[in-house]
Design goal:
alpha/beta, TIM Barrel, 4-stranded antiparallel β-sheet
């Protein structure tokens, strides 16, 4: 039986065997679409290249009972941004700073008891922090007292899902901190403190680190508990800051798993699936991530991309009902090679991790450059990978 893209990926997410190997992406980056695909929209790309479509929708809503409102100073949300939630006691002001090589913006978080500030820079590919929000340990008190906690706009999600229909997966992510953050609790904290400092504080002042993580966890908990009834197919939690190329398995046990495992349990109670995202090293923490009981794990970055994943070993060590998403080396097989080599890499991934289902082929995180004929070969070959149960 031929499945729709949505059916195909949902079967894999639920640990089953679809009709053919699903092939999709984490995000489609605007730079790639504009420079490599002639300015195609995401929808046009999926149609032209044959990938199984995904759609991200991340609408937040204010809670009038908490005197919340949409931040009027934000402007139109950008790529994958949500509308910020403000109150009279939590406002964000931004100012462009001239004289830098890269566009630079300063953000002031204004509260009745003081102002916190952070500065970001950006290029056509990404953005990064040059001045972290949390500079003194007491700064977390202002965040804990005044920061808003967004809720999911369930109606908006369901409208978007209805319009998308059977076309593909509806994805979202657990709320990040305002302006710059990541879905996971520890990972969000790395954006606010700086990963090097947070690692040092985890050794020198673990009590303070747990206080910060608890503040961020409570904010995410509000969001997760608001997800009931939202027609998401999968929501992302995690981020690169908890990979084994950044922190040790011991730190993962102490500062990541206690918070994110509870968020996963709450998401399941709200009727939602969770994909735990780990871009970077995964092999030393595979069982630790799986023990948090996500529905899926990603991104399974291979050594050629700076990761450490052996797909076949990962599949043996991860419970068979947990879907694996990723594994494909987009750096070496989306440019500078032949279509035959791209197809061979697809087959390698399928044989290593996909033979028994519960696998969605995907580039191991984002990509910004690719040759059109190779991205077409990627999906075409994936959809020629059939299972013994369905090929008779």
């Amino acid at each position: 039986m031929t499945m729709t893209s949505k059916e195909r990926m949902l079967v894999a997410l639920d640990g089953g065997v679809p009709d053919v190997l699903p092939a999709t992406t984490h995000f489609l980056m605007p730079h790639f679409l504009n420079t490599c695909m002639g300015g195609m929209s995401e929808s046009e790309f999926f149609d032209a290249c044959g990938w199984d479509p995904i759609m991200y929708t991340v609408p937040h809503r204010p809670d009038p009972a908490r005197s919340e409102f949409y931040d009027p100073e934000q402007g139109e949300p950008g790529f994958l941004e949500s509308r910020r939630i403000a109150t009279d006691q939590w406002r964000v002001h931004s100012q462009s700073i001239l004289g830098h090589e890269h566009p630079t913006t300063r953000y002031d978080f204004v509260t009745p008891q003081g102002t916190l500030s952070m500065t970001l820079q950006a290029d056509p590919f990404t953005s990064w922090v040059v001045e972290p929000l949390i500079k003194q340990k007491k700064d977390i008190d202002l965040i804990g007292k005044y920061a808003t906690a967004p809720k999911c706009d369930v109606e908006a999600v369901n409208q978007a899902a209805a319009a998308f229909g059977q076309r593909g997966l509806v994805r979202g992510y657990i709320c990040c901190f305002d302006v710059f953050g990541q879905p996971g609790t520890w990972q969000d904290a790395t954006c606010l403190v700086g990963v090097e400092r947070l690692i040092m504080e985890a050794h020198d002042d673990p009590t303070w680190v747990h206080e910060l993580l608890e503040i961020l966890f409570r904010r995410k908990k509000v969001f997760v508990e608001s997800l009931r009834g939202a027609r998401y197919d999968i929501l992302e939690l995690g981020g690169g800051g908890a990979s084994s190329t950044v922190i040790s398995p011991r730190l993962f046990d102490r500062f990541v798993a206690p918070y994110d495992s509870e968020l996963i349990a709450l998401a399941h109670q709200a009727g939602q699936r969770i994909a735990y995202h780990t871009c970077g090293g995964m092999m030393p923490i595979l069982e630790k991530v799986a023990a948090m009981a996500p529905n899926a794990m990603e991104t399974f970055t291979p050594p050629g991309m700076g990761g450490d994943v052996n797909l076949a070993e990962a599949r043996r060590r991860i419970p068979p009902n947990v879907c694996m998403i990723g594994g494909f080396d987009q750096f070496h097989f989306f440019k500078g090679c032949t279509a035959a080599q791209t197809r061979a890499e697809v087959r390698r991934c399928f044989e290593a991790a996909g033979r028994n289902g519960a696998f969605i082929l995907c580039p191991s995180d984002n990509f910004f450059e690719a040759e059109p004929e190779l991205v077409k070969a990627f999906a075409d070959e994936a959809h020629q990978c059939v299972y013994e149960e369905t090929s008779a």
